[in-house]
Amino acid sequence: MTDHSALVALLAERSATRGQFVLSSGKQSTFYIDARLTTMSPEGLSIIGPFALSVLEQTGWGIEAVGGLTLGADPISYAISFASAGSDHPLRAFTVRKDVKTHGTGKQVEGPLKPGDRVAVIEDVITTGRSALRAIDAIQKAGGVVIGVLALIDREEGGRQELEKAGFPVVALVKASQIISILQV
Q: Number of folded domains in the chain?
C-alpha cells in the first residue's frame, strides 16, 4: 500500500462522516472531515510527515519553514518538520494564531519563522481558501515569503482555485472525492 492510499484509507476510517454539517466557511455539507482525528494520531502522523515532506520536495519550492493557522495546521507542520530532521534541509515549523497575541510579545506567528524565510503554508482541509489566506497575510506581515500551500485535503469546492488566483500554487495530499469513494458510512 502506498503512503497516499494508506492516508486516504485512514482519513476515511477515522475522520470522515456523513450527516448534516455547517462548515467553518458557513457552507452546508452532508460530508464532514475532522482531519484532527487522523493528524493527531500516531498512525496519521507517521504517514503524513514523510509523505508530505516527499511531496514538498517534489514541488521544488525550496522552502525553509512550514506552518499555518492553528489548530488544523499544527500537527501536520510538526510532523513534516520532524520527518525532515535527518535530511540535508530540515524544515522549521511554526504556528499562526487566529488573532494577534494581546500580551507578552504580541506576536501572531509563533515559533522559529525568520524574516525572509521561504514558506509553505500548511492547511488541513481547504474548502474556500479563506483560512489559508488569513495565514498567508500573517506570515507575510511577519516577514515570511509564501511560496505555496500544501493541504492535507482539498474538499474540491473552489478553495484551491481562490488560492491559485491569489498567486499561490496549491498541492493537496488527498482530494475529498478520494475519501468519499471508499467511505463506508
A: 1
